[in-house]
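User: Small ask, check this?
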Amino acid sequence: MNGLTERIGDVLRDGWSWTGAASGVLLLAGLALVVAGLPASRRPTLDDRLEPYLRDTPRPSTLLSRPAPARGPFGFGELLAPYVSRLGARVGAVTGGAPSVARRQLRAGRPADVDRFRAEQVMAGALGGVGGLVFTGVVAVAQRRFPVPVLVSMVLVGIMGGIAVRDYLLTRAAVRREARMLTEFPTVAELLALAVSAGEGAVGALERVCRLSQGELSDELRRCLADARAGANLPSALQGLADRTGLMSLSRFVDGIVVAVERGTPLAEVLRAQAQDVREDGRRTLMEQGGRKEIYMMVPIVFLTLPVTVLFALYPGLSFLHFRL
């Protein structure tokens, strides 16, 4: 009975300690919001004061605009947006690489919005910090003690891990999209060659191929045609395709079309040759990946199967020698 009473007392004390910690965190969050809402914290910056005088067009009336939908549940997105943007700016100042981020966003088929990506990194870091906090709480409950240094270190590791994981996911999305474009490129190039051989011009061939095909490369070609219809010439629009992607095959493809459009040279054979080159590159890449997979397959054999085999072969002799000694 005494043991049960002591256990109940320990549980109550642990509950009160966690309640006190949560109350302290909520109190600090409330004080931070109060301080952030003071007039001194909401003072307009120099950019905000000069912006109305530097615009080319007058600001439209707010009576004619529709209210923007609330971001997040219960409007918490509107409340947290300024803080997330400030934290994103600090993350960008620490990590750097804004041109690289914009480049990878374009390669992934997304608009180049570095501020949005920094905000996503902040949210990913917050989720990582919550994960580190939960992990530390589980460890504290299991060991019946609250290690503050472990808590701080795990939260910091979770935050940095979340930021790094978001950056890695962007790079992975860009690489996957370019791999899909390389897969689609030979078929698109041969369709263009067939259309050009049938008498179509470069613009007509691109329009026909965009109507008949679907995929990442077709979407990029549709964007080039939209830019051309908006007033840009076709070579400049195609050069935008080469700038948005980091593939040498597409750069050579764009150069071939630009030369054919500007000089009137035959285009069908050039496109067929480029399609064949891309197929050869894909076949060579598959062979290289197969060679790496063979090496990876040797890892369990060398580090697991072989040591066990050697142990089974040597153990009887070693045990016999130990018995004789």
User: Anything to note?
Assistant: The chain has a mean pLDDT of 76. The chain has eleven helices and no strands. The two ends are 57 Å apart (CA to CA). Residues 17 and 23 are 10 Å apart (CA to CA).
